Predict the structure.
Amino acid sequence: MRAEITVLPGDGIGPEVTQSAVAVLRAVAQSHAHQFIFDEQLIGGAAIDACGEPLPAATLASCRKADAVLLGAVGGPKWSDPKAKTRPEQGLLALRKGLGLYANLRPVVPHPVALGASPIKSHLLTGVDLIVVRELTGGIYFGEKTRNAEAASDLCTYSVVEIERVVRRACRLAQQRRGHVVSVDKANVLETSRLWREVATRVAAQEFPDIRLEHQLVDSMAMHLIARPRDFDVIVTENMFGDILTDEAAMLAGSLGLLPSASLGEGKVGLYEPIHGSAPDIAGRGIANPYATMLSAAMLLRHSLGLDVEAKVIESAVSDALYAGELPADLSEGRPSMSTRDITANIVERIANCCCHIAELRD
């Protein structure tokens, strides 16, 4: 397969972790006879410094032309003034909108090695395997905003079409998993949530009769997600609720450095990024955890390129490395830690050595 991948290193540790993920993708291409063409472009604070805007036209054009987009992270103290008219995060929001990426997928599968790093009791985490589907392009983040000396407002709106398409995405995922979808809203208070619940109920009943749909209010969901995380399979919700719940769900995994994400639209192109931030305090020190970005690359292979076997190769290599104690600083808990470069070299070696087991993976 030949595929074009736009790489957006971004800010902070973004360039370091994307470099690791690109090395892993190159190893996959070499071991499995693929050709991946990488095009590096600017986004976020780095783009503001170079071009005066967080999403240059050349970056968006490259992303639209690509088969997939790999992103590091955006933002940092240098650009953190909330009153600034131009901010790094605007580049990410504009990119999602520009590519029509309406569904953010965040899988949470705590690795046994990292259970001790989570503030949640380990017996609650064993067997957790869930995925949150967050609507990305609607809701209060994109509604009309007003402000004067006395008041401010943010308008939250959702259309039937916006709700239908993200609920369909969640239901299709559930069909490939355990067949259970929890739709999260605030239907006891918000009119947009009442519409959300009605549409979700109709879509599930008419188009996915094999799926078990459950509704939860967002406040109760925040409690259940910590108290009984094993009970959940696919969780779908609107933009702001999803933003909050996915950060809460990240605590289940023990480290933000282990959690990937994918932002998808109707076509095959997707945006893949770790959920952690730019971590400017450790940038340039060679200790950033690259695993989440590598796992995001695995999602890229699976969802945009249709290379499920190759995705499993990366996931297996990361899992084996964690079991072998190849831990970055954020997971070492006093034990010896490894540099970003050494972790990457070991993963690349594992991928090269596993190609002889492909037949077994395909089975």
